[in-house]
Amino acid sequence: MKYACLLVFATSAVTGHAQDSGPSQLEAPVRLEADGKPIDIGALSKIAHAGPWVADVDCDGDRDLLVGDFPGYFWFFENTGTEASPKYASRGKLKAGKAAAKTPVY
Ligand SMILES: [Ca+2]
Ligand SMILES: [Ca+2]
User: Residue 6 C-alpha to ligand 1 middle, in angstroms?
Assistant: First the structure.
């Protein structure tokens, strides 16, 4: 059930981005933290490649941070703050049942 929620938000986010035809403006970069420390996927997974995404993974109404790593795992950072002012807590690898969720990589 939680995975269905994630897919719905991911789809709507992609659709909204594709329809935006206005000028692009980027905010200054911000180093994201979890548990009061900078998030370092290279330290967690031992390979420093990261694919971040925000979506309401736990279906509580705010967007969490999900980061894919090079080996194919997904690191879950629960938003314990608010939608306007997120704070992240590291929850480890995203689970599929009792096992870590993993996508095949080459
Ligand atoms: Ca959430
Ligand atoms: Ca939350």
Answer: 10
